[in-house]
Amino acid sequence: MKRALITWWMSGLWKEISLLALSDWYSVDILDISPWEIGDELPQNMNYIHCDISKIDQKTIEQLSGEYDIVICNAGISLSGNFLEHDLWANTKLMQINTLGHMELVRLLLLENKINEWGSIWAVASASQMLPFPIALWYSASKSALAGFCNALRSYLIWKKISVSVVFPWPMPTAHVKYYGKEVSYDEKSQKKVQKIAQASFQGIKKWKRNIYPDLVSKILAWFPLPGFILDRLMYRAYKKDIS
Question: Tens of pLDDT along 13-23?
Fold first, then answer.
């Protein structure tokens, strides 16, 4: 049986991807600080490991059994609103969780030979990288840094035959949108949308795609980018009331 490791599985897109991995004969290990949505029992072949990704260390790696075919760097938080109101402590915590913790996790896994040859590492970035996102400057920076790390990591790992993919999803009707003044939707239509994006992401990984744009908006932004001076004004107007 193949093995997958994911940070922060509990809800949204990456919960759906984990379930897809289970159905594709993967066992799945979850690294998360809290099992808040797991309940009393996990699905068969899924294992929860308590971990604060911002404080990843050798002790965490020692709790992992075996080697992985897929490592999913997914955990992330956001800060929204006026950039001037976010202090260094809050921004540092965000960077530690979204970027630096995952860089250290990958380093330790490679150091201990816990990623199989012909395996894959994939990181969750954001479609916000392809346009200005004035409501969440540090979040955008953290996702850009993670994508930059993955771009360099591809070359570093080329002789190990480990692929590195980056997924650029547009905000979906999951818990994450609460940061940007949107309402979380739990209806059947919203759930199907998340599942469709999960399937597109998972198929892209299996095909070793470097960059994955799993929804229509991210595809448009990647393939038909608007000039920066237009996007600057559009995004400022969209979020003016939230950042002023």
Answer: 777 888 888 98
For CA atoms 89, 91, 92, 97, give the dihedral sign.
positive
Q: Could you say which DSSP state residue 125 is in? A: -
The string of pLDDT tens digits covering residues 36-91 is: 555 557 788 988 888 899 999 999 999 997 899 999 998 888 888 999 999 999 99
Cα separation of 244 and 237, whole Å?
11
d(CA 84, CA 62): 40
In three-state secondary structure terms, 20 is: helix
Question: Which positions ≥6 away from 100 have C-beta within 8 Å?
Answer: 54
Q: Provide the 8-state DSSP code for 164.
A: E
3-state SS, residue 106? helix
